[in-house]
Amino acid sequence: MTTPQYFTSLAGAVCALFGEGTKIEKINRISGGDINEACCLTLTGGRQVFMKSNAKENLSLFEAELEGLNAIARTKTIGTPKILGIGTDESRGSVSFLLLEFIHSKGCGANYWEEFARRLLDMHRASTDGLVANGKYGFNGDNYIGRRRQLNTGYDSWIDFFRDCRLEPQFRDAQRYFEKEDWKKINRMLARLDKILVEPDKPSLLHGDLWGGNVIAGNDGKAWLIDPAVYVGHAEADLAMTELFGGFPRVFYDAYREAAPLHPEYEHRRDVYNLYHLLNHLNMFGRMYLPEIQDIIGRM
To answer: What phi and psi, each to the nearest 5 degrees, are found at residue 41?
Structure first.
């Protein structure tokens, strides 16, 4: 696992990491994110570095991302960008920053999606020893799902964890959107969650926010994971998220299921897992996600 240096200035970080006299020659903004600013830093000599920045008080976003990338990297199953450094800089307007390896992707290699499915399965099968305090499910510390805090209190039951640390906090924050009849359905679903979800055969490290935008072709042409919201849970929850916003190609699912057949009625449980992400989007972006949420709770 990487223990990156902490820096109190971006200029100091560049010099410490790449040699005295190294400077930032050019900063090119990269579009795509709605939480952090993303840039490509071109340094003396032409080397490029990826930087995320935010307000200084949001440094914890990058600390959580660092922990997530480290957790995935320690499994030695799937690529992640190398962590270079983290810090704050008062001279640039009181900002925090995270420096990562820049990905010069040349496109997807052969059997990209099938290989990704097998590597993801390997990650899901990797040991989770030492990742959760006081339980089997959760993580060593809370982190973020998007810009919202994600609770990771340790639990011995996956179903109890998912109810208490995933669904209930999101429903509480979204309570203004629901009518009395909605709450009857919500409370009924939460009370019978043990009849809907199943305990996994073993705990799995999850990426936690596994939609298409967080899987990219790395510098080796293979699938790499970025922007994790990691925790230990049921592997089904990661697979469910892949299907929420457009899905991956069929060959990905075929390869994963061929190596690890899913338990019956996965499609029913998938909607409950994705309820967490829909609620999170409801709390971040507004009521456009409400009809889909109401449909799911009405069917449970």
So the answer is: -95, 125
